[in-house]
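Q: Convert this sequence to structure tokens.
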Amino acid sequence: MKRKIRKFTFLLLCFVISFGLNAQNGEINKVQPQAEAASYDPLIPQMFAVDSKTQTVAVINKNENTIEILSPKGNTYEKKKVLLVDKTERRHDVQAIYTPQSVAIYENHVVYLASNRDSSFVRVLSLEGEQIDDFHFNGAASAFSYDIVTKMLYIAGDNTTGYNVFAIDVKNGFENINISDAPLFNYTKPRKADEIKKHDPWGVGLTAIAVSTVFLALLVIVLIMKGETDIIKRSQNLKSKGESVQKKVSHTNKVSDFSGEEFAAIAAAVYMYNEDLHDEENVVLTINKVAKAYSSWSSKMHNINVYKR
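A:
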């Protein structure tokens, strides 16, 4: 009976688990079409943009600081318009020059973002390159995105203090963009000191870490110095042992321990050794008298200068 109950319980548990997994898969499948229906355009800077209908291409030329609009012609493209983003002639303030950051084509409009160190602007063009509208705002932006479903244009950027996102309503079309009521979302990155203060308001942990670091460094220094002193002591012990051995040897070989016969034998051996070092030679002295002939070259009387007294 117990075995049947266990089997029934096991089957029931397996059924509940399989039912839950099927339900979860069904919910995922229901969510996926909704996600596909909502067009998601990530906030990533784009260098190229293509219109699916007319095959018009908008390109950012970083070298020339321009936006180039290309139109298809047979199997190639031709330049339809070249737009200078900012005038760079006779300008030395490079940080104040507007440079293009991202370009896109939305609803038959070319939209591009340009920024410098302190401010940015978004410009709306037609597919032929004619300017329709533009708006400036403070802050350096680097990317923008457009949500087709909600008709919202999001512009994002970062700075030294954090990040910001600018949300613009484009329900009236790109020809009538109004940024007066557009919300600006800012995020300020917390400083390291603020994060430490948040997790350790009284500074107990920081103090403990600092004190333990100091004591650990002192302990390491003590161990190193102790190891060096041990090495010095060992070398001194070995040196003293060697000196004691030498003293013992010299003590065992005293002069008083040798007899007269041994001294005589040592002296005879040294004498014979020194005699054997040289061959026997006859000592012959030869004295030659060298006569020095007179030479007028060294005579003092033939000096050039004659001194009169």
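The radius of gyration is 51 Å.
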